[in-house]
Amino acid sequence: MGDKDKIKKNPFRLTTQKARLDALCTLALFPVVVCFAAFTRPVIYRITGGLHGGTFKDVLHKGTENVDVGQPCKRQGWLNNAMFVVTCDNTSLDIHSVLAVTWLLLFTMQIFFIKYNFRGFHKAVGKFGMPIAFVNALGMMQFAAYDFFYPMEYTTRPAAFTPFMWFLSVEMILYLKSSYDALQNHDITMHSLWMYRAFCKSFSTPVMRFYPMVLRYFFGTQCAALNGEKAVFAAMTVAAFFISGLSYIANLLVLEQPMDKFMKTTFIKSGVTLLIDLIFASSKGMFITGMYTCWKVGPENFNPSMAFGGGAEL
Hints:
Strand order of the largest sheet: 1-2
Largest sheet: 2 strands, antiparallel
Shape: globular
Radius of gyration: 21 Å
């Protein structure tokens, strides 16, 4: 019996290319919805020119909290929906964010063009959509590099996050290159799978906004601000495991051997992210327990240095 016979067939792999493409489109809807949930309000804020200064009710926390977002921006502003703070007139952030939103809109269009068999539209959009996807990854890279030397003001994220964002952009470029190579070889399934992987990788940032945003809804903006330093690596870990799950489901439905090199390295990176989060939490505390403790004792009584948000001071 040869080595090929010893390899078990994947019983979950869909039998036709159309079925596999439909499955990828359906799976992609989940990160797309999360992206729109995380970025719709910041985009509205950006379009209006960041003119909303002052104090107003936070609509997420049941409209009960007064939140001060500072003075209106002079040129443009981006609202961080996770911590409810505004970054004004940061050109590097503006380039990165505008490109990311453009990538989201184009990818969403392509999903529906594929799913409903509008091949002509899909091909036409792809001619400029693929270059824009590369430019989006480069935009993320330039923002990470700029942020390394000139960190944003009013941010609680650890400095160690910036290299992660830079490497994430590098991974996106590699995935897009693999997608382009597959297209050149007329391998439509792998072209679609690599594009799906690239979008899921870029999906890290929206999840890192969405997860704290959900907890902010339940526990309040003041508690989110007090626990802001803990949020970044916690959200990174959540994002890493979401991406791993979405990637593995896609592999199961598309590939003969789901546990390929990509999937193995993805699981390893998720494990490393979890380890870093646990190391960070051992000294700073856990984000979700910190949020709960803050809500329980009240923001005015909460000490951000409480270990694990459990009430004992370090």
